[in-house]
Amino acid sequence: MKVEFHSGVPDKLDHTCRLLRKAQATGAKVVVAGEPGLLDRLDVTLWTFDALSFVPHVRVRAAGSAPPAAARTPIWLADVPAASAPTDVLVNLGTKMVPGWQQFARVIEVVGTDDADSQPARQRWRTYGEQPGVELVHHARRAAP
Q1: Distant-in-sequence, close-in-space partners of 142: CB < 8 Å, separation ≥ 6
Q2: Average pLDDT, whole number, for the chain?
Q3: Is the dihedral of CA 41, 50, 82, 2 positive or negative?
């Protein structure tokens, strides 16, 4: 299993929109996990970030079951990944490990530029690295000159 860290990301929502557009183009099924407020903002941003493209997605809230459209929608924005969620790719926007991350073929951790985001990411890196069969990959965003 591959776990990728995209660190030093100045705009997590924009970066995630671009990741999801690429995933959709390849036919991957993706679950995006994170804080509910952040997922709500991502939901809106996916509708507006590129006027020439549409990234099909559905918002899945922890309190309820997946809506009927979820079964045919490749990208789920989920407070908590459900057992019925797609398992190709997990994108984590949060600061904690996502329960059930092992069920995914690939995990992408999107890490912002502030310490509140990067410090917990370092711990997640160590935790993933302790797991057998996990290949860690780091994509560091370089600051503009």
Answers
A1: 8
A2: 91
A3: negative
The answer to whether 108 and 22 are in contact (CB under 8 A) is no
Burial (0-12, 13-18, 19+ Cβ within 10 Å), 41: middle
Half-sphere exposure of 80 (CA within 13 A, CB side): 7
Chain Cα centroid distance, residue 138 = 15
Question: Given a cut of 70, is residue 145 above it in pLDDT?
Answer: no
58-60, strands of its sheet edge to edge: 58-60, 75-78, 30-33, 89-92, 106-110, 2-7, 135-140
Q: Could you give all domains of the chain from N- to C-terminal order, each with its CATH number?
A: 2-140 (3.40.50.10110)
Residues 28-68 pLDDT 10s: 999 999 999 999 999 999 999 988 888 999 998 876 667 77
Beta-carbon-side half-sphere exposure of residue 9 (alpha carbons within 13 Å): 22
Q: How many alpha carbons fall within 13 Å on the CB side of residue 126?
A: 5
Whole-number Å distance between alpha carbons of 75 and 133: 26
